[in-house]
Amino acid sequence: MSGYLDGMAVILALNVILAYAVFLPVATGQLNLGGAAFQAVGAYAAAYISTQYGAPLPVILAVSASVSGLIAFVLALSILRTKGVYLVLATFAFAQFVSGVIINVDALGGALGMTVPEHVGGGPIIVIAGVVLVGVMLLMQTRFGLAMRATHDDDTVAELMGIGVRRTRVAAFTLGGVLAGIAGGLYAFYFNFVEVQTFDSLSSIYLLLFVLLGGTQTVWGPLIGAAFFTIVPELFRYVVANMGGASAGQLDTSWRFIILGIITVVMMVARPEGVVTRTGLGRLLGNRRAAPREA
Amino acid sequence: MDAAVVLALRNVTKAFSGLKVVTDVSFDVREGQRTALIGPNGAGKTTVFNLISGAYSADRGAILLQGTDIAAKRPGERTVMGLARSFQNIRLMPHLSVVENVMVGQHARTRGMMDLLTPLWLKRNRAWRDEAESQLRAFGLGTYPNEVTANLPYGIRKKIEVVRALMSHPKVLLLDEPAAGLNTRETGDLKDFLMGVAEHGVTLLIVEHDMSLVRSLCEHTIVLNFGLKIYDGPTASVQEDPAVLEAYLGPRHNAA
Known about the structure:
The structure holds two protein chains of two kinds.
Chain A: H1 2-27, H2 35-52, H3 57-79, H4 84-104, E1 114-115, H5 122-140, H6 143-153, H7 155-160, H8 165-191, E2 193-194, H9 201-214, H10 220-246, H11 255-270, H12 278-285
Helix pairs in contact in A: 1-5, 1-8, 1-9, 1-10, 2-3, 2-4, 2-8, 3-8, 6-8, 9-10, 10-11
Chain B: E1 5-16, E2 19-30, E3 34-38, H1 45-53, E4 60-65, E5 68-69, H2 75-81, E6 83-85, H3 98-104, H4 112-117, H5 126-138, H6 154-166, E7 172-176, H7 184-199, E8 203-207, H8 211-217, E9 220-225, E10 228-234, H9 242-249, H10 251-255
Helix pairs in contact in B: 3-5, 3-6
């Protein structure tokens, strides 16, 4: 049971890092539906380096993050010209491209995957997730963070105000690639095995859902979203299994995904801007209530 | 008596798919003056604004800001050089608080990575927020610093947009129909507000339909009609000008 909880904590930590990887571009108004692909790049880079060359773990991790970040940078330069649904499709296409390359390159194990000799325990992963969380929070409190949010709200006016909109977007997308690469590397070291199916489009969709349902307006949204989508399905696994045992014994645990789906739809209807919004957070903290309004 | 020319247009022309919207327009805006740009609907006023601020690029002609031709500069560069504008339909960032919106206006004055990548609550950065809040207070908007702008009344948001534009420390401020959508009381309020802005040494160029605001605020008026300049002189005599009367009321009135 303790092993199960440890495993859950690591998955949560990885999901938090990945949620922030997707949050950074989304915070500038760029939806990224290729989050898992950047994770795959980081994971395979880590797996390849540790099997072929071997190096201290932090070095491998830094290289994995750099490779993923570099690819994000090059991709951002070319696809951030597209907007809205076209950008989503471009990131999605990129994810398909990454899967295709991994499956067809023998050095990366193809469809069989790769075993990873190095191992890292849960503790360091949770610490790194904490560092990422604090780092992104600090970043969002800088003028660069303000520029990101301004770009998200109105890129024309942001440009007029002297903000380098394109530079801001490329930087945020690249930084997201770096974070996803770190999460990928950590994944490879923790599970000691990578296979391309892990980083499929469903994973990318989940990562985007963490952010969109958690809320993109504040830095807390991705954390809440990642925690919700990591913990709640597991809770349901437990609840549904017990319910099934009590009645007919027929209820499959996969029912939990139906419940999760319903909750997701309800959340989207009830809170289209995400669970955590700025006004909502302000009201919750009770500070500086809404100023008196004129008619 | 004449103050220095701070903004000048020289034979500026702009066509959209062959249709000339602005034709050979030239005018001077003098330092410290409050100038109105008026004209019937479709006269090209907002196009001229977009050409000056850089939203559109001119087909021909020069736009001189303090003697430097800015016609080929990007909008952000023009802001850094001393130009600022507001929009006809308010363009505040809806998810940013009032003070954050105003701080976005300071971006043109940031220098280097340290300004961008250090948290704004650090001591070295505290002055930014202090300045934004004191500017808001100076213009009677001190009550709202942390409110998200989407929740605020229209007239307040209009003023916040002007304060944001002022934060780049512009030489010239372009205001696109500041009184649109305001009632008489709010318009009077806005006039006092803009007088206050002008007293801070900012040159104003205003597109406006509300002639009472133009008369009470602007000493100088430029009139456009079908993309051509038809009047450039004191506001006091604009309504006696035959060409202006004809543009607004038709040729019959002029003959009568």
